[in-house]
C-alpha cells in the first residue's frame, strides 16, 4: 500500500465509489481519514456544511480511544462505531489499520441499509489500495 | 506522517505541542488562535476537564498559503500534560510531523521537564520514530515570571538539561504575553516542511 501519497487516479476512483454508493443513497457527508486525523478525501451532498478538518481530528481521537478500550477488555478491535442523534447519525468503519470511513446521515436511511453499502464500499476501496 | 493529496494539491502537516502539565501548551495555541484569526477557518477544538485542564487534546487547523502550488494546511495539536494521561498523549503523537517541546522554565519544574522529555522519547519509539530525527523545537516558556520575582532556571541550565544531546533550535518564550509564540511556530513549520520535502525527494 502506497500510504502517505495517494495518486490522483486512486483518489478519483475512490471519489466515484463514495458518490455512487453513499452520497446517492442519501448520505449527507462521507469522509475518509487516516488514524493521525488527516483527511484523505471528503464528499458531501452539496448541502451539508461540516467543518471536516476538526471533525477528522476528533474522529481519529475517538476511534483511537475506543480501540484502546477494546484492547483493555481483551478484544482485538471494535471495528464498527455508530453514534445516534435526533436528526443526524454518524457511522465509523475501519478500512484498514490506517484508514477510517465516516458517514454522516439523517433519518431517511436505515442503519442496516447503510451498513450493507459501507461494507461494499470498504471492500472496493481496499482493492484500489492493493493495486498499488 | 503528513498526508499529501495530489488531486487537490493539499499537504496536511501535523504539529504537536508536547510538555509537562501546566507548562503552557494550550496557552500557545490560544495565542495563535487569537492572533491569526483571519487565517483560521474553524474554531479551536478543546477537549478539557471541568477544571480547564486538557483531557485529550486541543486542535487548531490553519492555512499557511502555497508552496510550489501546494496548499499547506497546518494542524496544531496539544497533548494533555498531566502524568496520568500518557495513553492519550501517545494517541495524539500518531502520525506527527513536527514537535514543539514546551518546557516550564520555573525552577521547581526542572525535574518534570526532564521526565516529560524522556517520556516523549519513549512514546516516539513506540511509533518507530526517533526524537533525534523528528523536527523538534524547544520552547522555554514562562520567562516573563522573572519580572515577578519567581525563580526561573537560567538558559544554560535548561539547555544542559533538555537540549545538550538533541541540539535542536530553542527559544525563550512567554505564551501568556505572546513573546516568541509566533517565532516558535514559524520555526517548527519550516523544519517540518523541509523534512517532508526531503522525504519526498
Describe this structure as you would to a colleague.
The complex is a heterodimer of chains A (132) and B (201). By secondary structure, chain A is α+β, with helices and mostly antiparallel strands. Chain A has a single domain (16-131), classed as Dynein light chain 2a, cytoplasmic (Beta-Lactamase). Chain A is 44% helix and 24% strand. Chain A has helices at residues 8-23, 52-72, 111-131, and strands spanning 5-6, 29-34, 39-44, 80-84, 89-94, 99-105. Chain A has a five-stranded antiparallel β-sheet, with helices on both faces. In chain A, strand 4 and strand 5 form a beta hairpin. In chain A, helix 1 (8-23) packs antiparallel against helix 3 (111-131). The termini of chain A are close together. The mean pLDDT of chain A is 88. By secondary structure, chain B is an alpha/beta fold. Chain B has one domain: Rossmann fold. Chain B is 31% helix and 27% strand. Chain B has helices at residues 25-35, 86-93, 110-125, 155-162, 181-200, and strands spanning 3-5, 10-18, 45-48, 54-67, 70-78, 98-104, 136-141, 170-172. In chain B, strands 1, 2, 3, 4, 5, 6, 7 and 8 form an eight-stranded mixed β-sheet that branches. The longest helix of chain B has 20 residues, at 181-200. Chain B starts with a strand and ends with a helix. Strand 1 (5-6) of chain A pairs parallel with strand 1 of chain B.
Amino acid at each position: 500500500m502506497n500510504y502517505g501519497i495517494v495518486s490522483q487516479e486512486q483518489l478519483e476512483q475512490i471519489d466515484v465509489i463514495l458518490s455512487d454508493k453513499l452520497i446517492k443513497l442519501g448520505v449527507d457527508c462521507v469522509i475518509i481519514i487516516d488514524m493521525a486525523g488527516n483527511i484523505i478525501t471528503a464528499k458531501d451532498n452539496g448541502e451539508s456544511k461540516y467543518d471536516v478538518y476538526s471533525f477528522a481530528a476528533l474522529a481519529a481521537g475517538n476511534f483511537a480511544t475506543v480501540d484502546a478500550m477494546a484492547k483493555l477488555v481483551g478484544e482485538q478491535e471494535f471495528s464498527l462505531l455508530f453514534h445516534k442523534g435526533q436528526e443526524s447519525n454518524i457511522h465509523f468503519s475501519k478500512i484498514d489499520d490506517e484508514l477510517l470511513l465516516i458517514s454522516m446521515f439523517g433519518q431517511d436511511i436505515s442503519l442496516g441499509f447503510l451498513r450493507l453499502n459501507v461494507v461494499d464500499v470498504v471492500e472496493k476501496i481496499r482493492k484500489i489500495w492493493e493495486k498499488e | 506522517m503528513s498526508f499529501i493529496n495530489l488531486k487537490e494539491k493539499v499537504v496536511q502537516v501535523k504539529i504537536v505541542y508536547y510538555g509537562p502539565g501546566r507548562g503552557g501548551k494550550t496557552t500557545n495555541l490560544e495565542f495563535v488562535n487569537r492572533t491569526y484569526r483571519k487565517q483560521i477557518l474553524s474554531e479551536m477544538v478543546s477537549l478539557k476537564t471541568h477544571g480547564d485542564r486538557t483531557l485529550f487534546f486541543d486542535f487548531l487547523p490553519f492555512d499557511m498559503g502555497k508552496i510550489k502550488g501546494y496548499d499547506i494546511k497546518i494542524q496544531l495539536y496539544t497533548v494533555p500534560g498531566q502524568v496520568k494521561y500518557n495513553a492519550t498523549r501517545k494517541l495524539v503523537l500518531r502520525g506527527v510531523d513536527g514537535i514543539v517541546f514546551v518546557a516550564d522554565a520555573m525552577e521547581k519544574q526542572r525535574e518534570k521537564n526532564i521526565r516529560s522529555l524522556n517520556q516523549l522519547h519513549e512514546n516516539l519509539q513506540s511509533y518507530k520514530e526517533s526524537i533525534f530525527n523528528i523536527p523538534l523545537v524547544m520552547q522555554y516558556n514562562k520567562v516573563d515570571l522573572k519580572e515577578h520575582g519567581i525563580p526561573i532556571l537560567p538558559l544554560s541550565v535548561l539547555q544542559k538539561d533538555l537540549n545538550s544531546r538533541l541540539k535542536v533550535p530553542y527559544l525563550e518564550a512567554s505564551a501568556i504575553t505572546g513573546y516568541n509564540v509566533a517565532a516558535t511556530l514559524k520555526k517548527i513549520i519550516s523544519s517540518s516542511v523541509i523534512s517532508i520535502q526531503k522525504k519526498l525527494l
